[in-house]
Design goal:
This protein is of the alpha+beta class. It is built from 10 helices and 19 strands. The protein has 2 domains: 151 residues, 3-Layer(aba) Sandwich (Creatine Amidinohydrolase, Chain A, domain 1), CATH 3.40.350; 230 residues, Creatinase/methionine aminopeptidase superfamily (Creatine Amidinohydrolase). The protein starts with 12 loop residues before the first helix and ends with a strand.
């Protein structure tokens, strides 16, 4: 069957085969006979989210979705609404697609496990997102485990998401396309910025650009504050209607995706020349960004980046919120954040084809002023590659 959608363009059959074989090998090592994979909602954009479901099904349904993934045999996708069934079958590459029903899906998932002869086996529950600590809704968990009292269940969301961290070459092609789309949308947004334009107008520029390229967005953070009296060091997740003025700094976190894989730019630019304080923060961010890119490579651990995260910014008289986050199919490990004297997630080890956000982020002590310079990068054989081409590490002034 030919792929007929631009939400999740299909990978090759060879890619899905390799993916499923890798998951099943890990299941055998963990003594799991089946996975129940759950997805719900998303962020505040036009992509449905549910990355763990999408990884198997190249699909995510309205509100929530289930996939039953046995160690042998075909996966089964459950969609909530019966009226959606035909379209779901046109969208996913999975062949076994069933109606769950508004309130019955958990019980139908349990029935499918019984059909597979797994009522007394070990079942892993893969929740919606480990980053947000979302596994199964409580009533769903009770319904499924209550219908299968002899089965042994284990929450394995984090384990499953770590299986997704190292990207295949086909996935890397999606990441490069997503980064290029993000560059294009970001460039249009910057060009549209001038006094009198509202941050919500800039969000709409990104939205139109993304959809014009057959992309989707998970969110679009856009914020502005006067450099003379700032009150923002993190871009607003909901873009406001207060017009941009001369003398503002604009901070954005813009992501555009292709097939559930996203680029992301953490950008800062100025409406009029930056004040001395903002120029100083930007220069500190530039140096920190360069230092991190020089230091990250396969085998490096999170704790090895402590000095790069902290020293330049702290010695410059500012607080460092510099971070390195996993980013491709939404948030994932690592979660390396600066503290006053170290970093979190110090044991994380970088590997080739990990995809991450590298964000240099100086702020003042009160966190009322700050800038960030952040990209989406891929770990390579000998270092790290910024997947974006937009020159976000240069001072950008619009008028």
């Amino acid at each position: 069957m030919k792929c007929q959608n631009n939400f999740w363009p299909w990978f090759s059959e060879e890619e899905y085969t390799r993916r499923y074989e890798r998951i099943r090998a890990a299941m055998r090592a963990k003594n799991l006979d089946c996975l129940i994979v759950y997805g719900i909602g998303g962020y505040l954009g036009t992509d449905p989210g549910q990355p763990n479901v999408v990884y198997i099904a190249s699909f995510a349904g309205f509100v929530q979705t289930y996939v039953v993934f046995p160690i042998e045999g075909e996966p089964t996708l459950f969609t909530t609404w019966g009226n959606h069934l035909k379209n779901v079958k046109q969208t996913t590459h999975l062949r076994d697609v069933r109606i769950g029903g508004m309130g019955q899906t958990p019980l139908r998932v349990a029935d499918r496990l019984k059909e597979l002869g797994l009522a007394r086996k070990r079942v892993g529950i893969v929740g919606a997102m480990h980053w947000a600590n979302i596994n199964l809704p409580h009533d769903h968990h009770l319904a499924i485990t209550g219908a299968l009292p002899a089965a042994e269940f284990e929450i394995v969301t984090e384990w499953f998401e770590r299986l997704r961290l190292v990207k295949s070459e086909e996935e890397m092609a999606y990441m490069r396309r997503a980064a290029a789309m993000t560059d294009a949308a970001y460039d249009l947004m910057v060009r549209a910025t001038r006094p009198g334009v509202r941050p919500c107008d800039l969000y709409n520029v990104v939205l139109r650009a993304a959809h014009g390229m057959d992309g989707k967005i998970p969110f679009g953070h856009v914020g502005r504050t006067p450099m003379s009296d700032p009150d923002m060091s993190y871009a607003h997740q909901l873009a406001l209607t207060t017009p941009i003025q001369m003398g503002d700094v604009v901070m954005t976190e813009i992501a555009v995706g292709w097939g559930g894989y996203f680029g992301k730019i953490w950008g800062t630019y100025f409406v009029g020349e930056p004040t001395p304080e903002y120029e100083k923060m930007f220069r500190l961010g530039q140096k920190t960004h360069v230092a991190l890119h020089a230091a990250i490579r396969p085998g490096v651990k999170g704790r090895d980046l402590t000095r790069q995260c902290l020293d330049v910014i702290q010695h410059g008289g500012y607080k460092s919120k510099t971070c390195i986050f996993g980013w491709s199919n939404y948030n994932s490990p690592p979660d390396i954040r600066s503290t006053s004297d170290g970093v979190t997630d110090g044991d994380f080890t970088f590997e080739k084809n990990h995809c991450v956000n590298v964000v240099a982020w100086p702020v003042n002590e009160a966190e009322t002023a700050g800038i960030w310079i952040g990209d989406t990068s891929a770990i390579t054989e000998g270092g790290i590659e910024n997947l974006h081409k937009y020159p976000l590490a240069e001072i950008c002034v619009v008028r």
